[in-house]
Amino acid sequence: MTPLPETRKTFIQTPDDLMKIVTAFRQSRIILTGFELGVFTALGAQKKSSAAVAKKLRVNVRGLDRLMNALCALGLLRKKGPLFANSSFSARHLVDGKPGYLGGLAHTANLWNRWTTLTRAVAHGGTVLGSRAPKGNEKKRVRGFIAAMHQRASVQAAATVGLLDLSAVMRTLDIGAGSGAFSIALVRKKQDLQATVFDLPDVIPLTRAYVKRAGLPARFTFHPGDFNKDEFKPGYDLVFLSAIIHMNSVADNKRLLKKCAKALNRGGQLVIQDYVMNADRTKPAAGAFFAMNMLVGTEAGDTFTESEVRDWMKGAGLSRIRRVDTPYDSSLMIGRKK
After folding, report:
1. Which residues make Cβ contacts (< 8 Å) with residue 49, sequence separation at least 6?
2. Could you tell me which CATH number the domain at 153-337 has?
3. Over the stretch 2-18, which tens digit does the pLDDT of each residue have?
4. What is the pTM of this model?
5. What strands, in cross-sheet order, belong to the sheet with 83-86?
6. Which of 158, 169, 257, 264 has the least C-beta neighbours within 10 A?
7. Minimal CA–CA distance to 43: which of 71, 11, 14?
8. Average pLDDT over residues 186-215
9. Residue 177 pLDDT > 50, yes or no?
């Protein structure tokens, strides 16, 4: 069989390239363990010995000392004599309560446990985790997930909203809104716009907190519910689905888009933001990698091609469907109700 020609620069061209990638998990795990244990927050703005930090965190002194040495090697801690301190980066971004705190790393730590099952998930064709998530950690898990999504969305929201035509938009519905970052950007973009956010009952209190922090509660309405089970009230000029369709099966997405279309006013827009794959599902690379994330974590979630999403939108009665690529790896699929 004739090998396929190389059509793009690959990530891996030498054995050294391969080894750098496959062993990078060590650095990742060191950072995540430091974050999970609370090492950076325990240090704060002080200089402390590993013994003092271990006592505060109630962990083994020797184990923590070796971890903190490794964090020094990564540049996240500094050490002078027996005393450790946060680097300037860690002091800004890894200490709980600081404005730049990267609390979303808690979600990354949760994903680590899922990804260790990838080999079995590929063989099985979907998640092998079932419903074995510890119930006692559910609130913490949800907070970590929403924080991670907020960090990502806050960076992208203004640029993404700038790609939309809001001239005839007065009322929006953000389904699976999470922190509400995109709706916050929408109401900031247009002064007379009113936003409704829809998410699970245990998420909505978190959404309220983010909206309150943004100083915009008067511009928002909050609806708890399950987007795969509940109907949406009608009367919206724009329905926004960001990072939602990758959670669902094809059948679930077809049903969801039909419900979204029913909620739109005539001429209203359905805006889907997600990874939109090319026909052979290899680009964008981030989308191909994310398909693995859905494989280990869901029964039927995936990243979908442009033609698939177009077909679902047409089936929901939408027309004038177009794709708009964002400055990030995601794309927008926009259709209007006839």
Report:
1. 82, 83, 84
2. 3.40.50.150
3. 333 344 456 789 999 99
4. 0.83
5. 48-49, 83-86, 77-80
6. 158
7. 71
8. 96
9. yes
